[in-house]
Write a structure and sequence with these properties.
The structure is a homodimer. By secondary structure, chain A is of the alpha/beta class. The first copy, chain A, has one domain: P-loop containing nucleotide triphosphate hydrolases (Rossmann fold), CATH 3.40.50. Chain A is built from nine helices and seven strands; from the N terminus they run αβαβαβαββααβααβα. The first copy, chain A, has a seven-stranded parallel beta sheet with strand order 3-2-4-1-5-6-7, with helices on both faces. In chain A, α1 runs parallel beside α4. The longest helix of chain A is centred in the N-terminal third of the chain and has 26 residues. At the A-B interface, α1 and α5 of A face α1 and α5 of B.
Chain lengths: 220, 220
Amino acid sequence: MKIRVVENILKANDSLALDNRAYFKSRGIKVVNLIGSPGSGKTSFIIKAAALLSERGLVCGVIEGDIASSIDAEKISSAGIPVVQVNTGGGCHLDAGMVKACLSSLPLDKINILFIENIGNLVCPFGYYLGEDLRITLLSVPEGDDKPLKYPASVLDTDMIIISKTDLEKVCGVRASSIAANARRIKKDVPLFRISARLGTGMAGAVGHLIKFNSTRRPT
Amino acid sequence: MKIRVVENILKANDSLALDNRAYFKSRGIKVVNLIGSPGSGKTSFIIKAAALLSERGLVCGVIEGDIASSIDAEKISSAGIPVVQVNTGGGCHLDAGMVKACLSSLPLDKINILFIENIGNLVCPFGYYLGEDLRITLLSVPEGDDKPLKYPASVLDTDMIIISKTDLEKVCGVRASSIAANARRIKKDVPLFRISARLGTGMAGAVGHLIKFNSTRRPT
């Protein structure tokens, strides 16, 4: 009975996620779901990426997920990016219903690319499809090079990996190339990009891939 | 109905956790549940702490929780510490039943302090009491200074906070004092320690507190 209830919750989520996907498609909005550990650099990536996309004439919006606070939404808003904050009040992931509930608070007629910053959690968010076109996993250098092996869903259930904070490689004694090699042990052909949002390095390549990429992502 | 099922799961967990607690108490074993984000330094803390405790004549054992792999258990075993690996196969937290199932694989008659390294996750593990005497939250400097505000349970539902990787303060532009100040905004009197496992600084204070501390922790 326990399993059946979980299945029902997931089915209800998938149904709402497909509604979201159809809605986004009808408006020509590309949606990116960003997943990573607490402090892996999701917000910094969004702000830097939005600036690069703006240079190409593309307008971004953000759904900012946090358990509590609006710290990241304020940062994003200060950068001139339309943003709506979702506080889960304890929940460990965003779900499709939360995304749907946000849509009326965003100027969707002006937005080309919508970033959804999930709760900082390298486990639970991978189980919930939100209706996104593209799912990105951020793995930061200070977390160590073994995260793909310890959290295999972070590689298997994503479309693209961004290795962040590469400016900390030497001081942390962690090589981005080792993170990449471990990710390829889990999924050989996963697209991988290395960035330092602080230095601005690697951003153009990651953003270029994001623009081009259209996944065939569906509820699993 | 959904809520009722969740309540039942938690009640079943709490019942097993109280069994664990009674069992540990009868054997005079002190149990420490370590919770933190992926890569926050839980394993490094355990290895350094066990060495210091050994100098005081105290023997440590470890229950090592990971979704997949035995990377950390191998590190711990290489340091000469008895360890048993739990792989949750996707589960985002350890529960009391998993802890109970491990006990026959550890030399409990020799162990004074048992560390349980939870899944790397700053959200879900706080909801599951395992029968521990003491719960420690690790917050690492590279994660940023705002984690106590974004993940309030990591402060409210813990007995002691360890701010780790303080050797990275300058290079990350993050001050341990800011992490501490934000934690105190959530819980004024939470015991706080700053360590660098790499440099060995701060370990004696944290371990001293760990030895002295007896929480009144119970299922919530």
